[in-house]
């Protein structure tokens, strides 16, 4: 076998490996986002039960419950982008956190078996969402690295691949929690 033919075969193998690597990373990002989406759907399914359980107790926080219900409806719309899903997820996370803090102000509600079960279920789903977000962010980081690094960036550009967004926490979630303020409510 001649040297130019060997070089051509080696180059072809490298190109195929780079192509397959990029496709695998893109598919991994989409697969993990689908698992995040599944966990978010599970949370959206729990929200009506939570709202129904706490609404009769929480007349003062009615606007908060309405906001959660509205956000859930928006999140369940078909054909929303991944970016919109991420933004709605951040808003729902914040609103649910506020509901859980408000529940602490209602001793009868806090002792209610259904509400306690819903709180445990939501906490479990939130932990699963957090784990899925971490996996997604890692997959996106690997994917974005492949899009930026030489020589895969050249092939990614030819394939029309674009960088993906990672899940980020909101500015409110970055602030330190004022424990004294929580107990004074």
UniProtKB/TrEMBL annotation:
Organism per entry: Sulfurimonas paralvinellae
Lineage: Bacteria, Pseudomonadati, Campylobacterota, Epsilonproteobacteria, Campylobacterales
Location(s) in or outside the cell: Membrane
Tagged with keyword Acetylation: no
GO cellular component annotations of the record: membrane
Source organism, top-level taxon: Bacteria
Family, as annotated: Belongs to the LemA family.
Protein name as catalogued: LemA family protein
Keyword annotations: Coiled coil, Membrane, Transmembrane, Transmembrane helix
InterPro entries from the UniProt entry: LemA-like_dom_sf, MamQ_LemA
Keyword match Transmembrane: yes
Entries under PANTHER family matching the protein: PROTEIN LEMA
Membrane topology, as annotated: Single-pass membrane protein
Ranges in a coiled coil: 115-142
């Amino acid at each position: 076998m001649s040297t130019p033919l060997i070089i051509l075969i080696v180059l072809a193998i490298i190109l195929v490996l780079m192509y397959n690597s990029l496709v695998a990373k893109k598919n991994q990002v989409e697969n993990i986002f689908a698992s995040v989406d599944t966990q978010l759907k599970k949370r959206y399914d729990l929200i009506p039960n939570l709202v129904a359980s706490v609404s009769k107790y929480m007349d003062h926080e009615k606007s908060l419950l309405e906001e959660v219900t509205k956000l859930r409806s928006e999140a369940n719309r078909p054909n929303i982008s991944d970016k919109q899903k991420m933004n709605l997820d951040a808003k729902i996370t914040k609103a649910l956190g506020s509901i859980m803090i408000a529940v602490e102000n209602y001793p009868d509600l806090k002792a209610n078996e259904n509400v306690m079960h819903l709180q445990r279920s939501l906490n479990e789903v939130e932990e699963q969402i957090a784990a899925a977000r971490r996996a997604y962010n890692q997959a996106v980081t690997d994917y974005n690295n492949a899009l930026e690094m030489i020589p895969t960036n050249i092939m990614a550009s030819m394939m029309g691949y674009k960088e993906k967004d990672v899940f980020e926490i909101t500015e409110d979630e970055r602030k330190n929690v004022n424990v004294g303020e929580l107990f004074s409510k």
